[in-house]
C-alpha cells in the first residue's frame, strides 16, 4: 500500500478541510512531520488509520472523540484517503458516529458511522462498497492485514516502540498471535488437553465402576477379599461361582425327595377332608328337613291368598275403565265452565273496541291536515337554516380576523426587537476577538510548562537512577578489587603448597640416591646438598581443595567483572539520557538546570503553571461566553428568519379574511330577500315541527292499532262460540260412556265370587307382590324335595363309614410343607446370588476390556497433550514453537539493521534459557554485546539503544510478514517519536538505515522534535496552530 492523498474535515484539531498530497514528495519518500506539541501531528496518522479501519492508531485514542471541537454543529466530520495497491488506485471515505441537525423540526439526531470505497479508473470514481461491514472486510482483504497487524508493522504510534522489546514473554506471545494468527495451534492444544482430560475422567469412572461392582460381591466366610485388584477379584469370583453352583445341585436333589413325601401326604389329606364334608352335610340336612316340614301349613295359606289375588287381577281392567270415564266427564264439565267465562269477557271487550273503532274512522280528514302542516313547516326550516349557516360563517370569519390582526401587530413588534438584539450581540462578539487570541496564547504556554515539568520530573527520575547506578558502581568496584586481592592471595598460597609438595617429593628421591649414582632427574653423580623432609606433610587432597577454592574465587571475580562492565555501560547510557534531557529542557525553556536547583526550578514552574492555568480558565470562561453569544446570534438569525416568514404569512392571511367577509355579507343579503320572516327562531320552528309530527304520528298509530285490535277481538269471539258448541256435544257422549263402564265392572265382581267392592279391594295385590309370593311357594317346595332326596342318599352312603380325624392328618401335612418351603427358599436365594455374581463377573470382564482399549488411546492422546501444552523438557508449547520460528525469522532480519545502527556491537537473539516456576519458555529476548562477549537482557539497554533495537525489530517484522503473505505490500511506514533518545552518532546510523529503506521505494514518515532531523530530512509536513484550528502544508528544502 502506498499513500497518495489524505483529506481531513472537522477531524481532531483540523476545523477546515485539509489536504495532504503525498505525490508532491516526488523521490523524497522520507519526510518529517513537525509542529508544536498538540498541533495534530499524530492526528495525521490517526486519520489514515481511521479511514482504513475505523479506529485511531493508538490505544489511548477513542475513535468516538475524533470530531473537531472547533467545527460548528452543521459541519460533518469526514476523512478521505487515496492509496495505490497491486497497481490499482482506491479512495476510502469514512464518517464517524456524530450528531447532525434534524431535517424537520428542531434539535439534533445521531448519524451512524458511514464508509465507502471507490476504485479510481482513468480519473473517474466507481463505487465498490458502500456499507461499513463490507468496507472493513474489503480493506483487510486488500491489505492482507488486520488492524492489530497494521498498527504493529505500518503505523507505530507513540509508546509502541519500547513495548516491542520490553514486554515479557507472555505479552510478546499475544502480539505475535495477533500478527501471525496462530490461534489454531492454541485451539489444537486446548482440544488435545480437553480430550486427554475427558479420557482420564472416563478411566477414573471405569475404575470407580470396577470397585463398585466388586463391592456388590457377597464373599462367604473364609475368603480373604480385602485390597484385591480388579483382576484378582475376577479370578476369585470365578472360583466362588463354581462352588456355589455345586452347592445348588445338592439343594435341588434334597428338595425333590421332600416333594415326593409331600404329594403322598397331600392326597391322603384331601380324601379325609372330602369324607368329613359328607358327615357335616348329613347333620345339616337332617336339621333342615325338620324345619321345612314345620312350615308346610303356612305355605298352604299363602297358596289360597295367591289364587284370590290372581282373580282380582283379571277384573282390574274394568275398574280402570270406570275411573278413566269418570275423569274424562269431569274434565269436560270444567272446560265448559271456563269457556263460558271467557266468552263473557271477550264479548265485553268487543263492544268497547268496536265503539272506539267507529269513532276513529270518521277522523281521517283531520290526520291529512296535520300531514300537510308538517311539510309546510319543514320547507320554512330549510330556508332559515341556510340563513343561519351564512350568518355563522360570517361570525367565524369575524372572530378569526379579530384574532389574527393583533397577532400581526405583535409579530411586527417582535421582529423589530429581535433585529435590535442581534445587532447588539454582534457588536459584543466583535469585541471578543482579543479574548480568543489570549486564550490560545495561554493554552500554548500551559502546554509548554507542562512539558517543562514533565521533562523536569523525568530528569529527576533519571538522575535518581543514575545515582543508584553510581552507588552500585562503587560497590561493585570495591567488591571487584577485594575479589582480585583474594584471588591473588589464594594463588600465592597454592604456589607455596605446590612448592612444598615438590620439595617433599625431592626429599623422597634424595633418600634413595647414593654417591656416584646418577640422579634420575638431573643425571649428576654427585649430590652435595640433598633435599630434606619438613615437619608437615602436603597431601594431594589439600592442594585439590585449594585449587577448587581458587577456581570458585576466579569465577566469582569473572561475575563481578561482568557486573562491573554492565553497570559501567548502563551508567554511561543513563548519563547520556540525563544529558539529553538537560539539553532538551535547555532548548525548550532557555534555562540550564543544575542538579541542586532542579527541585526549586520544578516548584517555580509548577507555581507559574498554576497562574497560567488560572488565567487560561478565566479566558476559557470568557471564550465560552463569546461562543455562547455566537450560537445565540446564529439561533437568533434563524429564529428571525422564521419570524419574518410567519409575519408574511399572517399578513396574507389577514388580507384574505377581509376579502372573505365582504363576499359572505353579499351572499347573506341575497338569501334574506327570499325569506318571509327573517327574524323567525330556528329552534322554536323545530319544536313546532316536532310537536306537529308527533301528533300526526300518534293519531296514525292509534288508528292502525284500533284496526288490528277490532279484527283480532272479533275473530276471538267467533272462535270461542264454536268451541262452546263442540264442548256441549262431548259432555253428553262422556256421560253415556261412564254409566256403561259402571255396569260392566259390577257384573265381573259377581262372576269372580266377590261379595262386594270391599272384598275385591282386600284381595288385590300388585304384580311384584304376587310374583314374590309365587316364588316363595315354589322355592319352598323345591328346597323340601332336594333336602329329602339328599338326606336319603347320604343315609345309604355313610351307613358303614367311620368319621376321620382331620387335625392329626393336617398337622403332618403342614410339617412337610414347611420343610419344603424352607428348602425352596434356600435354593431361590442361592440362585439369586449366583445370578448376581455372574452379572457382576460379566460386567467386570466388559469393564476390563473397555478400560484396556481406552488406556491405549489415553497413552497417545495424553502424551500429545503434554507435549503440546509445553509439559516437556524445553517448556515450549506447540503454539510457542511455531511463534518462536516466526520470531527467529524476524530477529534475523532485525539484526541486519541493528548491526548497522550499533556499529556491530549488538545482536538480538531468542533466549534458550528455560523459564523458572513452570512458566512457558521460547519467546524471551536477550542481546549479545560484542564488546563484552556476554548475553544480557534487552531491558538493560539504554533508551537510545532500546529505540534502535525496537526500530530494527519493527522493520524486520514488516519484512517477515510481507514474505509470508504474498498479497501484502508494505511500501509505507510511519514512526511517531523515539529519536530523541539517540546521540548524534546513533541518530546518524538510524538515518542511514532508514535511508536504505528508500532504495526499495518505501515511503517513510517520522514525527520528531529532534533539531538534527529537521536539518537532515528535506521533505517536511508542517503543522501550524491558530485559534480556529490547525493547518497543514508540505515543503521541500
From TrEMBL:
Residues 6-212 form the Rad50/SbcC-type AAA domain. The keyword Coiled coil applies. GO terms for molecular function: ATP hydrolysis activity. GO terms for biological process: double-strand break repair. Residues 185-435, 459-507, 543-570, 602-857 form a coiled coil. It holds the Pfam family AAA_23. Keywords: Coiled coil. Heterodimer of SbcC and SbcD. Belongs to the SMC family. SbcC subfamily. This is Nuclease SbcCD subunit C.
Amino acid at each position: 500500500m502506498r499513500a497518495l492523498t489524505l483529506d481531513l474535515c472537522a477531524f481532531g484539531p483540523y476545523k477546515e478541510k485539509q489536504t495532504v498530497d503525498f505525490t508532491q514528495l516526488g523521490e523524497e519518500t522520507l519526510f518529517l512531520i513537525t509542529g508544536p506539541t498538540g498541533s495534530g501531528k499524530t492526528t495525521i496518522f490517526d486519520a489514515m488509520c481511521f479511514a482504513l479501519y475505523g479506529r485511531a492508531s493508538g490505544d489511548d485514542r477513542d475513535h468516538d472523540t475524533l470530531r473537531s471541537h472547533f467545527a460548528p454543529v452543521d459541519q460533518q466530520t469526514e476523512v478521505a484517503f487515496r492509496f495505490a495497491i497491486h497497481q490499482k488506485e482506491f479512495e476510502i471515505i469514512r464518517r464517524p458516529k456524530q450528531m447532525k441537525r434534524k431535517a424537520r423540526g428542531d434539535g439534533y439526531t445521531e448519524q451512524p458511522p458511514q464508509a465507502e470505497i471507490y476504485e479510481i479508473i482513468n480519473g473517474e470514481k466507481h463505487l465498490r462498497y458502500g456499507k461499513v461491514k463490507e468496507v472493513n472486510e474489503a480493506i483487510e482483504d486488500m491489505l492482507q492485514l488486520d488492524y492489530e497487524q497494521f498498527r504493529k508493522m505500518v503505523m507505530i504510534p507513540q509508546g509502541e516502540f519500547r513495548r516491542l522489546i520490553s514486554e515479557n514473554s507472555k505479552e510478546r506471545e499475544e502480539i505475535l498471535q495477533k500478527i501471525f494468527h496462530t490461534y489454531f495451534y492454541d485451539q489444537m492444544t486446548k482440544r488435545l488437553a480437553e480430550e486427554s482430560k475427558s479420557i482420564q475422567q472416563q478411566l477414573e469412572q471405569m475404575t470407580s465402576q470396577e470397585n463398585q461392582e466388586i463391592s456388590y460381591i457377597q464373599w462367604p466366610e473364609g475368603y480373604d477379599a480385602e485390597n484385591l485388584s480388579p483382576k484378582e477379584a475376577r479370578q476369585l469370583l470365578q472360583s466362588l461361582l463354581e462352588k456355589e453352583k455345586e452347592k445348588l445341585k445338592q439343594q435341588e436333589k434334597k428338595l425333590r425327595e421332600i416333594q415326593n413325601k409331600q404329594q403322598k401326604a397331600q392326597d391322603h389329606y384331601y380324601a379325609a377332608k372330602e369324607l368329613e364334608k359328607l358327615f357335616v352335610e348329613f347333620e345339616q340336612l337332617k336339621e333342615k328337613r325338620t324345619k321345612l316340614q314345620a312350615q308346610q301349613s303356612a305355605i298352604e295359606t299363602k297358596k289360597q291368598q295367591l289364587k284370590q289375588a290372581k282373580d282380582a287381577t283379571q277384573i282390574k281392567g274394568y275398574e280402570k275403565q270406570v275411573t278413566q270415564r269418570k275423569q274424562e266427564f269431569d274434565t269436560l264439565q270444567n272446560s265448559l265452565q271456563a269457556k263460558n267465562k271467557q266468552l263473557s269477557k271477550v264479548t265485553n271487550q268487543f263492544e268497547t273496541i268496536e265503539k272506539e273503532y267507529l269513532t276513529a274512522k270518521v277522523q281521517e280528514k283531520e290526520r291529512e291536515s296535520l300531514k300537510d302542516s308538517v311539510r309546510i313547516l319543514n320547507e320554512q326550516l330549510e330556508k332559515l337554516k341556510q340563513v343561519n349557516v351564512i350568518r355563522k360563517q360570517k361570525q367565524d370569519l369575524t372572530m378569526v380576523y379579530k384574532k389574527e390582526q393583533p397577532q400581526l401587530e405583535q409579530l411586527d413588534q417582535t421582529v423589530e426587537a429581535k433585529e435590535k438584539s442581534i445587532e447588539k450581540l454582534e457588536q459584543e462578539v466583535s469585541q471578543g476577538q482579543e479574548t480568543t487570541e489570549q486564550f490560545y496564547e495561554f493554552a500554548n504556554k500551559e502546554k509548554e510548562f507542562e512539558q517543562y515539568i514533565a521533562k523536569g520530573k523525568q530528569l529527576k527520575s533519571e538522575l535518581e537512577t543514575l545515582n543508584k547506578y553510581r552507588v552500585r558502581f562503587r560497590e561493585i568496584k570495591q567488591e571487584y578489587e577485594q575479589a582480585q586481592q583474594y584471588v591473588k592471595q589464594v594463588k600465592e598460597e597454592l604456589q607455596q603448597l605446590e612448592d612444598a609438595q615438590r620439595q617433599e617429593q625431592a626429599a623422597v628421591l634424595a633418600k634413595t640416591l647414593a654417591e656416584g649414582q646418577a640422579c634420575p632427574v638431573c643425571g649428576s653423580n654427585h649430590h652435595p646438598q640433598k633435599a630434606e623432609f619438613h615437619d608437615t606433610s602436603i597431601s594431594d587432597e589439600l592442594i585439590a581443595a585449594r585449587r577448587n577454592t581458587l577456581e570458585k574465587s576466579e569465577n566469582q571475580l569473572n561475575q563481578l567483572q561482568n557486573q562491573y562492565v554492565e553497570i559501567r555501560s548502563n551508567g554511561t547510557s543513563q548519563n547520556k539520557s540525563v544529558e539529553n534531557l538537560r539539553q532538551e529542557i535547555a532548548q525548550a525553556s532557555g534555562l540550564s538546570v543544575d542538579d541542586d536547583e532542579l527541585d526549586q526550578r520544578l516548584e517555580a514552574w509548577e507555581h507559574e503553571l498554576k497562574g497560567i492555568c488560572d488565567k487560561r480558565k478565566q479566558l476559557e470562561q470568557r471564550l465560552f461566553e463569546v461562543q455562547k453569544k455566537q450560537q445565540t446570534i446564529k439561533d437568533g438569525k434563524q429564529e428571525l428568519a422564521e419570524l419574518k416568514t410567519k409575519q408574511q404569512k399572517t399578513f396574507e392571511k389577514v388580507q384574505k379574511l377581509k376579502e372573505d367577509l365582504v363576499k359572505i355579507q353579499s351572499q347573506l343579503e341575497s338569501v334574506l330577500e327570499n325569506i318571509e320572516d327573517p327574524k323567525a327562531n330556528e329552534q322554536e320552528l323545530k319544536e313546532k315541527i316536532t310537536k306537529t309530527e308527533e301528533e300526526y304520528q300518534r293519531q296514525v298509530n292509534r288508528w292502525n292499532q284500533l284496526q288490528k285490535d277490532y279484527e283480532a277481538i272479533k275473530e276471538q269471539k267467533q272462535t270461542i262460540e264454536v268451541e262452546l258448541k263442540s264442548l256441549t256435544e262431548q259432555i253428553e257422549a262422556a256421560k253415556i260412556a261412564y254409566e256403561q263402564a259402571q255396569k260392566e265392572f259390577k257384573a265381573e265382581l259377581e262372576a269372580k265370587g266377590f261379595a262386594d267392592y270391599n272384598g275385591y279391594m282386600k284381595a288385590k295385590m300388585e304384580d311384584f307382590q304376587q310374583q314374590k309370593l309365587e316364588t316363595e311357594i315354589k322355592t319352598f317346595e323345591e328346597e323340601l324335595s332336594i333336602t329329602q332326596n339328599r338326606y336319603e342318599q347320604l343315609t345309604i352312603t355313610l351307613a358303614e363309614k367311620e368319621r376321620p380325624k382331620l387335625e392329626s392328618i393336617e398337622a403332618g401335612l403342614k410339617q412337610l410343607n414347611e420343610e419344603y418351603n424352607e428348602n425352596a427358599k434356600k435354593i431361590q436365594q442361592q440362585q439369586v446370588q449366583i445370578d448376581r455374581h455372574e452379572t457382576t463377573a460379566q460386567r467386570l470382564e466388559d469393564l476390563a476390556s473397555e478400560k484396556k482399549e481406552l488406556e491405549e488411546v489415553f497413552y497417545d492422546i495424553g502424551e500429545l497433550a503434554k507435549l503440546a501444552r509445553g509439559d516437556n523438557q524445553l517448556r515450549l508449547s506447540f503454539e510457542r514453537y511455531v511463534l518462536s520460528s516466526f520470531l527467529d525469522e524476524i530477529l534475523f532480519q532485525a539484526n541486519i539493521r541493528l548491526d548497522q545502527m550499533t556499529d556491530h556491537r549488538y545482536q538480538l537473539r531468542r533466549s534458550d534459557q528455560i523459564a523458572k516456576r513452570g512458566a512457558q519458555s521460547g519467546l524471551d529476548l536477550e542481546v549479545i554485546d560484542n564488546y563484552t562477549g556476554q548475553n544480557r537482557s534487552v531491558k538493560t539497554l539504554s533508551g537510545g539503544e532500546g529505540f534502535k533495537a525496537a526500530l530494527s525489530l519493527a522493520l524486520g517484522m514488516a519484512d517477515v510478514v510481507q514474505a509470508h503473505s504474498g498479497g501484502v505490500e508494505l511500501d509505507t511506514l510511519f514512526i511517531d517519536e523515539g529519536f530523541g533518545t539517540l546521540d548524534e552518532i546513533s541518530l546518524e546510523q538510524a538515518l542511514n538505515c532508514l535511508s536504505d529503506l528508500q532504495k526499495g521505494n518505501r515511503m517513510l514518515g517520522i514525527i520528531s522534535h529532534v533539531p538534527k532531523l529537521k536539518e537532515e530530512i528535506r521533505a517536511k509536513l508542517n503543522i501550524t496552530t491558530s485559534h480556529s484550528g490547525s493547518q497543514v502544508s508540505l515543503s521541500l528544502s
